[in-house]
From TrEMBL:
GO terms for molecular function: proton transmembrane transporter activity. GO terms for cellular component: proton-transporting ATP synthase complex. It is found in: Membrane. This is ATP synthase CF0 subunit I. The lineage of its organism: Eukaryota, Viridiplantae, Streptophyta, Embryophyta, Tracheophyta. Keywords: ATP synthesis, CF(0), Chloroplast, Coiled coil, Hydrogen ion transport, Ion transport, Membrane, Plastid, Thylakoid, Transmembrane, Transmembrane helix, Transport. The gene is atpF.
């Protein structure tokens, strides 16, 4: 203890021994007061300060651990999202390629169907024209036949007399009789 008091003796000017008075040396008194306060704080506050620092250290470490776990989880989610993105991009490319080929197939099918329809329509048109042509030819033939028949009937009626008519009938009957004898 003597060493402690000796250190204070040399720090300032002490008044005469045995007297009581005020120390007017501000630096010496402030240093003494500060060293006493710091000593008391260190002695009594060391445990509290250690506890506070330990608590703070534990909170920082737990925050770091939580951050690391969150970081790992975020990285895993990022990798999963990237994998899903790659998968979706592959599927999109596949759908795009299939879509293009499907469009080309549909285009070719539509062109073929249109070509087939045109051929059928052309065939139907040709058949209709042929049918109408044959019908017209048949009608013309019928008219010509009717006119020829009417002309022949008219000619026969004007040229045939009763005697000629009877001789034609007898000749035809004779022909039919000869055919009957042969069979």
């Amino acid at each position: 203890m003597k060493n402690i008091t000796d250190s204070f003796v040399f720090l300032g000017h002490w008044p005469y021994a045995g007297s009581f008075g005020f120390n007017t040396d501000i630096l010496a008194t402030n240093l003494i007061n500060l060293s006493v306060v710091i000593g008391v704080l260190i002695f009594f506050g060391k445990g509290v300060l250690n506890d506070l620092l330990d608590n703070r250290k534990q909170r920082i470490l737990s925050t770091i651990r939580n951050s690391e776990e969150l970081r790992r989880g975020a990285l895993e989610q990022l990798e999963k999202a990237r994998a899903r993105l790659r998968k979706v991009e592959l599927e999109a490319n596949e759908y795009r390629m299939n879509g293009y080929s499907e469009i080309e197939r549909e285009k070719e099918n539509l062109i073929k169907a249109a070509r087939d329809s045109l051929e059928r329509l052309e065939n139907y048109k040709n058949e209709t024209l042929l049918f109408e042509q044959q019908r017209a030819i048949h009608q013309v033939r019928q008219r010509v036949f009717q006119q020829a028949l009417q002309g022949a009937i008219g000619t026969l009626n004007s040229c045939l007399n009763t005697e000629l008519h009877f001789s034609t009938i007898r000749a035809n009957i004779g022909i039919l009789g000869a055919i009957e004898e042969i069979t």
